[in-house]
Amino acid sequence: MEKNNLKAWLYLLPAILFLGVFMVYPLIDVFVYSFEEGYNSASQTFFGIGTYNYSYVLRDPYFLQALKNTFILVIITVPLSTGIALLISLGLSSIQKVREWYQTIFFLPYVTNTLAVGLVFMILFKKTPYSDGLMNLLLGLFGVSPIDFMDGPYWAKMFVLCFYTVWVVMPFKILILTSALASVNEDYYKAAKVDGTSAFRTFGRITLPMISPMLFYLIITGFIGAFKAYSDAVALFGTNLNAAEMNTIVGYIYDMLYGNSGGYPSYASAAAIILFVIVLTITCINLLLSKKYVHY
Amino acid sequence: MKILLENVTKIFPGRGKGAKEVRAVDKFNFEIPDGKLIGLLGPSGCGKSTTLNLLSGLLQPTEGKIFFGEDEVTNLPAEHRGVGLVFQNYALYPHLTVLQNITFPLENLKGDAKLTKEERVKRATEAAKLVQIENLMDRKPGELSGGQQQRVAIARALVKMPKVLLLDEPLSNLDARLRLQTREEIRRIQKETGITTIFVTHDQEEAMSISDMIVVMKDGLVHQIGKPQEVYDNPTNLFVAKFLGTPPINVFAGRIQNGALYVGEDKLFDVSADAKPGDVYVGIRPEGFVLQADGPLHCSLSRVEVMGRDMSVVAGHPAFLDASIRAIIASENLAEISGDAVNFDVKPGKVLVFDKETEERMYI
Ligand SMILES: Nc1ncnc2c1ncn2[C@@H]1O[C@H](COP(=O)(O)OP(=O)(O)O)[C@@H](O)[C@H]1O
Ligand SMILES: [Mg+2]
User: Fold this and answer.
1) Which of A190, A195, A212 sits opposite B105 (nearest CB)?
2) Stated pTM of the model
3) B187 vs chain A: nearest CA distance in angstroms?
4) How does pLDDT run across A172-189, given as a tens digit for each residue?
């Protein structure tokens, strides 16, 4: 018995070491930093322990801007991308023959570099002395005067960021949903058909519950992913996100560490802990809701 | 309601390059009498499920017509046919309770047929009573045994009071004891409701034991239709003869010569003068053997398996085409067997002769 236990711990050791060094220790460290007031990374000293870092961060207009941006991004892109992905997947799974072929196409953006996709978006949206961008060209057909999407009003930039985020996360969601749809046993649909179930009811009462675990998985990871958004904003608006009013929470944390205004690990840690608490809360709410709506 | 199939044919296109098309059902003609239990029987892949799907409307026939009563339903979609269908894997909705599963078809009713919630629950409870699962209504299918799931599936098919009940291999996922019990149950439910029922199985014993009539299929073709005992006693060809009966029929290479039937060198009995001479297959049912010291069939004895009332004499013969002959004989004759040889006489009614070429039955 004793020996067995020792063996078990030995097997676990690599994983524990790895997780401990790279996950648990930093987590605790961040937590500690966030309460150390006036920490100086050069001299490794601090004045005292307290909640000043939090009150600073929560009063910092840049952080509040980042918080607002992140929430808008989450609230718009998660439902939208999941909804559109579901529609496209439903369409795809009804065209049996070209499904695999289409899957590749829809998956391409997923394996394409974020920054490369950012470049494409530049062409779509960027206003230059020579062109107003494809989007404005399109809008021009409907008599809309050109909008500066990349440097113009807040809502236009937010639109581009949301559009981009939805675009980037879509392929993964489509991939997951098409396979979830394909894994629903054909017999359920046959049974429903013989019983005279309408297509709408079949979708609501059979398809949706059957794929609900996958849908739920996508929503949770979608929330977490959107809360951690950063590279997308950089790809579109460059590294000075505060100036562009397009910063996200993770962007703010990064800036606090390394940006032009950087060198404040305490503020960064406090912001990171705030983000952690937000994500944890939302995920818990999601889990509670899932008990009610997700089957199995 | 009686069902009429006229030349019903279903051809599936071949999959892949140069693949041949599949004639899953080929010119099926049958008038199913009202209120009977029909066993659709055949080896795996012979087109039983396809036939059932053609009846349910999930598939459209390539050719031919289907009538329910006087109405042609060939092109009527499944949702308007009013059939109850039970799947081999039951296809119970896993996220719904038993009650919700059974009321599901009722919630689809529209217009005049629309039911209130109370009526739906009442109908579901009646159906559940019929299959004796009324105490399981709040469970999910995952919390039921195979036999219970089967009953739920039948209740769900019955609740909308279908004119036709179709069961696709309903017992194949059950263990041996449950299978026996459930097939009696299906018979009882069918008798009680009087619904025309078609029951698909690849197990001949199952079909024989509960069906009013059986249809024997192979490779999309209907080989024989009739009452189980008639088909067993009078199979039209070698396939049907081999497919029905446990233990299976014993097939020998034989011939008709000089007005007599021979198995190897053994002359079994005289046949009518106009029987065509030549090579034949001779099938002898296990119960067609009689122990007789000077009997015409000379066999080598392998062993005797006594199973209570009967015993199974396992023997060999040079002209026998399979591994070993099995003869079923009353156990009281055990004393007559000894040594390593055994001689049999045969009951002429249990000896079936088939043409060597066509494998069709020869009436001699
Ligand atoms: N959708 C289909 N496409 C092509 N071939 C099929 C299809 N369904 C069945 N078949 C073929 O038709 C034949 C009969 O199948 P089926 O009716 O399922 O047999 P059974 O139920 O008697 O085992 C088989 O050879 C099978 O491969
Ligand atoms: Mg089948």
Assistant:
1) A195
2) 0.81
3) 23
4) 898 899 889 888 998 999
